[in-house]
Design goal:
- By secondary structure, the protein is an alpha/beta fold.
- It has 14 helices and 17 strands.
- It has a nine-stranded mixed beta sheet, with helices on both faces.
- Strand 12, helix 8 and strand 13 (327-333) form a beta-alpha-beta unit.
- The chain is globular, with a radius of gyration of 24 Å.
- Helix content is 31%, strand content 22%.
Length: 498
């Protein structure tokens, strides 16, 4: 069935009658509508990472790039970069006591990692359980053979994004000091039950080499800061912990990034690359996706992120028709919705060295509530404002710079995987003024279907993305972080800038 659907759409696109496109671009309304309707079709079942529908989406993107003449980079076969993933599920059974108090698994606490274990050990409070140039919470603290309890996040930040990004490093630090288990105290600004529902089911992560921190039990416990045992821990009074866990369950998942290369035309600038990216996965069906009804349980993801993929393919087509001075890498990522998995893997395993990758234009969004704008996250951080403004003005659109700041959207899409390595990066999105009712009506909802998208606006969005990519790819001056940006030190280190 899937193969028939894919072939039908590819043939439909191949034999479509010529249609007048905008000057300077080979992107037509028919193209973008066909691609969006295919990617957001019910048959793809929400493009969940590792699913058949996700594989069909990847094949469609691959076929499109090959037809445009994009090449497989060295070490990548047939444009596919395999991304090693594993599905993980919480233990079937677990028990926890702290002092004289008993806690219930999947109600009071949640195990998020570790092998089967049964132990009795003393508890130790270790601040944030963090180490950086300014602070080492383990300095002078003996946690060998003990259960460590820490505050969420880092001394510099306790927002959800910082909390989640710090998880792995905190596990590694605790294990390296000999801890037998680590628990973070839940204090995030959304209800504990939401956290339980999200993490208390099967999730996905990158497959890692076996390390001590993976064997160590790692979990979260609802805020116990008002308890006597917590007070005793902070005072250094010996507090005994009893812990049993049947262990996390794991199974391998097959998924892939789609990667194509377009060589540049300038003998010198072609040694530099801009990387155009978008994630093709979405959240699946039924309980995979969240709230659904008996009438519709498929999360089609037209806005998030079929629109971004269509813009990516449009830019790829326009650049292939008339290649720019710099070389271009086009990547469609898997696993963004599950924690930026595909882009994180690419950033650690780039097909072209990141030191030659001078800019990332990422295309992603949660929807739009204005068709008179495009939105850019990181607009004034990397010196490409004039290119963005010019490209938008050619479609009579304006740029909304970093809207909805409370949502911290710059650090919630694939662009941040590059930014953390020092590569100047922005995310180019449909027009968003704020997360209002219009956004919420479609964001991660079954209602986000292709039929609800303004196709004329989609075409404009794609044209602006393509023109922006071309302007940056042809500009002799390289983008770079503005002075004082949080990612400027990484950029200087990556490119050897003093």
């Amino acid at each position: 069935m899937y193969a028939f659907i894919l072939m039908t759409f590819l043939l439909t696109g191949a034999i479509a009658q010529p249609h007048e496109s905008r000057p300077g671009n080979d992107i037509s309304r028919e193209d973008v509508e066909m691609q969006l309707r295919f990617l957001a079709d019910d048959a793809l079942k929400g493009r969940y990472t590792g699913s058949e529908g996700g594989a069909v989406a990847a094949a469609f993107i691959k076929g499109t790039l090959l037809s445009l003449g994009y090449q497989s980079p060295e070490g990548v076969e047939g444009l596919y970069q395999p991304v090693p993933l594993q599905a993980v599920s919480p233990p079937d059974s677990s028990a926890l006591t702290i002092g004289s108090e008993q806690y219930i698994h999947l109600q009071d606490y949640l195990i998020l990692g570790g092998k089967p274990t049964e132990l009795t050990a003393n508890a130790v409070f270790a601040g944030y359980g963090w180490r950086d140039d300014n602070q080492d919470d383990y300095e002078g603290l003996d946690v060998d053979g003990k259960v460590v309890f820490v505050l969420p996040g880092t001394p510099e930040g306790q927002d959800p994004n910082t909390v989640f990004q710090a998880m792995q490093e905190k596990r590694k630090l605790a294990a390296s000091h000999g801890a037998v288990a680590l628990f973070e105290l839940y204090r995030l600004n959304f209800p504990w039950n939401f956290f339980l529902r999200y993490f208390g089911k099967e999730s996905m992560r990158l497959t890692e080499e076996s390390e001590a921190h993976q064997s160590m039990t790692y979990g979260w416990i609802n805020d116990i800061s008002g308890s006597e045992t917590w007070a005793d821990m902070q005072k250094g009074i010996p507090t005994e912990v009893g812990l049993f866990s049947s262990g996390f369950r794991e199974r391998p998942i097959n998924s892939r990034n789609v990667v194509g290369i377009l060589p540049g035309t300038d003998s010198l600038l072609s040694q530099e690359y801009i990387i155009l990216t978008a994630h093709y996965d979405h959240v699946g069906v039924g309980e995979q996706g969240g709230r659904y009804s008996s009438e519709d349980s498929i999360f089609n993801g037209a806005r998030d992120n079929a629109m971004g993929v269509v813009a990516l393919l449009g830019a790829a087509k326009s650049l292939a028709k008339s290649p720019p001075a710099r070389s271009v890498i086009v990547v469609a990522f898997t696993g963004e919705e599950l924690g930026l998995l595909g882009s994180s893997y690419y950033a650690e395993n780039p097909v072209i060295p990141l030191s030659q990758t001078i800019f990332n234009l990422n295309m992603d969004g949660g929807g739009y509530n204005t068709t008179e704008h495009v939105s850019v996250f990181g607009y004034d951080r990397v010196g490409v404002q004039s290119h963005l403004d010019l490209a938008a003005s050619q479609e009579n659109l304006n740029v909304l710079a970093d809207p909805a700041p409370r949502q911290n959207l710059y650090d919630r899409s694939d662009n941040v995987s590059f930014a953390k390595k020092g590569v100047p990066a922005i995310t180019f999105s449909p027009g968003l003024t704020d997360f209002d009712e219009e956004i919420g009506k479609y964001y991660h909802r079954p209602e986000d279907e292709a039929s609800s998208v303004d196709m004329d606006y989609l075409l404009k969005y794609c044209l602006v993305a393509a023109r922006t990519a071309r302007l940056i790819a042809n500009d002799i001056q390289r983008p770079f972080w503005v002075e004082g940006d949080a990612y400027e030190p990484q950029g200087k280190l990556l490119y050897g800038v003093k």
